[in-house]
Amino acid sequence: MTYFDFSIFLQADFAVTVARAEVRDAHLFGGLEELRRRYQERYVPGQRLYLAEAQPERWASIVVDNNDPLRPFVVDEEKKHFPRT
């Protein structure tokens, strides 16, 4: 049996992800102020740590900029043509 491994990493700036959360999740946190506080104290630092330690962009087959979900694009043209093994 043949196995394959292919991954896509969707990247977006923290300002974009927080703004999306404000629209999507404010009611879950009891308002914008609490959402922003928790994202700045927990989510963003946790994501920074994960990105630094795991380096998912390095290991992904393709990296896609998803700052504008209506116009995503492949960031690394070299990775766009995934080599066959």
Describe this structure in words.
- By secondary structure, this protein is mainly α.
- The chain has one domain.
- It has helices at 14-29, 32-54, 56-59, 77-80, and strands at residues 8-11, 62-65, 73-74.
- A hairpin with a 7-residue loop joins strand 2 (62-65) and strand 3.
- Helix 1 (14-29) packs across helix 2 (32-54).
- It is elongated.
- The mean pLDDT is 90.
Short account of what is shown:
With 85 residues, the protein is mainly α. The protein contains four helices and three strands. The chain has one domain (8-80).
Chain-wise SSE layout:
Layout: E1 8-11, H1 14-29, H2 32-54, H3 56-59, E2 62-65, E3 73-74, H4 77-80
Parallel strand pairs: 1-2
Antiparallel strand pairs: 2-3
Helix pairs in contact: 1-2
Please supply descriptive tags for the structure shown above:
85 residues, three-stranded mixed sheet, 3 strands, elongated
Radius of gyration: 16 Å
Determine the N-to-C terminus distance.
15 Å
Q: Describe the sheet with the most strands.
A: 3 strands, mixed
Percent of residues in beta strands? 5-15%
Low-confidence stretches: none
The helix/strand order is EHHHEEH
- How many helices? The count is 4
Number of domains: 1
Give the rounded overall mean pLDDT: 90
- The geometry reads as elongated
Number of strands: 3
Strand order, largest beta sheet = 1-2-3
Helix content: 55-70%
Helix-strand makeup class? mainly alpha
